[in-house]
Design goal:
119 residues, 4-stranded antiparallel sheet, 7-stranded mixed sheet, 11 strands, mainly beta
Length: 119
């Protein structure tokens, strides 16, 4: 399974960006999906996650009310809509999926996309 991210960039604080993560490669079934981020000198942290069963989402406290995670099952694509961006949201953002391939479940990471919110 390959994950290709897009949508990162430079935006002024208060602005918006939408990240996309498209999954491809063979036959697979996506279970959970999530977005993580890693700022310079900091550990990678969970930003938002979306389960496949009940579709329930959860968010880091720092982004609640500003970010929205969603998925398009037909396109095997997940999104992260980011509104009211703050300087502290600046980081490399990574998508992550749990997928079942040939009966086994694996975790996959995207290549990362830079998001910079200028103050």
């Amino acid at each position: 399974v390959q994950l290709v991210e897009s949508g990162g960039g430079l935006v002024q604080a208060g602005g918006s960006l939408r990240l996309s993560c498209a999954a491809s490669g063979g036959t697979f079934s996506i279970k959970g999906m999530a977005w993580y981020r890693q700022a310079p000198g900091k550990q990678r942290e969970l930003v938002a996650a979306l389960g496949s069963g009940n579709g329930r989402s959860n968010y880091a406290d720092s982004v609640k009310g500003r970010f929205t995670i969603s998925r398009d099952n037909a396109k095997n694509t997940m999104y992260l809509q980011m509104n009211s961006l703050k300087f502290e949201d600046t980081a490399v953002y990574y998508c992550y999926v749990d997928a079942v391939v040939d009966g086994y479940q694996y975790g996959y990471w995207g290549q990362g996309t830079q998001v910079t919110a200028s103050s």
